[in-house]
Amino acid sequence: MECKDLLLSITRCHELASATGDSSHPCAIVVRSQTGQIYQVPEPWTGHIETAPILFIGSNPGIHESEYFPRSNWSDPDTIDFFTRRFDRDAGYTYQKPNGGAQYVKVYEGNNGPVVSRHWVRFWSMIKNHAKAIAQDQPEAGKDYAITEMVHCKSNNEAGVRNALSHCSRKWLPAIMEQSGAAIIVLLGDHPRDAAVGLWGLDASQRVQFDVPIAGRNRAVVILPHPNFRGKRKIEDYVGQQELEQLRSKLPRA
Asked: What are the extents of the domains in the chain?
């Protein structure tokens, strides 16, 4: 399956109809976080996943009802372009401060829009800080790292994630990893860790594991707290200097 076909398959996931009509379906809670005929589609990934050397994996995307984000009535080309080039500066889907700092989504406000939101995305900023700590450089979102989720449907406060975790991750993550060119995988929080333990046979007690066979190649896997964790969140708090150097050696040289 080509990358663009996988992207569209996730956004048009056939489990949506089943989960909408069957309350016992593992995805029912997360799918029913949205109502109406036109909805924000499941988020396959953000960035150039085939070439990005670092891939961050979260639990599931949060939802903002007025966000400028692909709906179920978007065309296939527009949907593909959004998720692939969401962070590209010339694409116009998000806004990033010129100094490479905070990133903002765009939202619809009344009859205006899309306009830049007043609030920066903390989740994205934390991920960028992690990427910067690994690479020791100012990373470019979407190109130096990509982002995906274990559960692709959107909800607030991870509603329905626990129920859908095994079903959704087993359905889509193996195919996503076949497309991913990442040498380093960073798991953000307990849900991604738990799913990866089941899929890849990880040792949940080890923060960094090297040479993990995933989709036909060996990769390094890092387990970090969720970006909303109230305790220590810097990668240096969990990964030693020697391990960081070893991670850096996996990245392509400039």
From this structure: 3-90+122-248
Q: Which residues contact 52 (CB under 8 A, 6 or more apart)?
A: 142, 143, 144, 145, 146, 180, 181, 182
Tell me, yes or no, if the pTM score tops 0.85.
yes
- pLDDT tier at 254, thresholds 50, 70, 90: low
Beta bridge partners of 209: 221
Looking at domain 3-90+122-248, which CATH architecture does it have? Answer: 3-Layer(aba) Sandwich (3.40)
Task: Tell me the C-alpha distance between 170 and 165, whole Å.
Answer: 8
What are 206-228's pLDDT values in tens digits? 999 999 999 999 999 999 998 88
Question: Which amino acid is present at 3?
Answer: C
Residue 62 CA from chain centroid, whole number: 11
Structure tokens at 168: 């959704």
Instruction: Return the axis-axis angle of helices 122-135 and 241-248, rounded to nearest 10°.
Output: 90
pLDDT digits (tens, 9 = 90+) for 107-162: 987 777 789 998 889 999 999 999 999 998 889 999 999 999 999 999 999 999 99
Side-by-side strand order, sheet with 217-224 = 45-46, 145-149, 54-58, 184-188, 217-224, 208-214
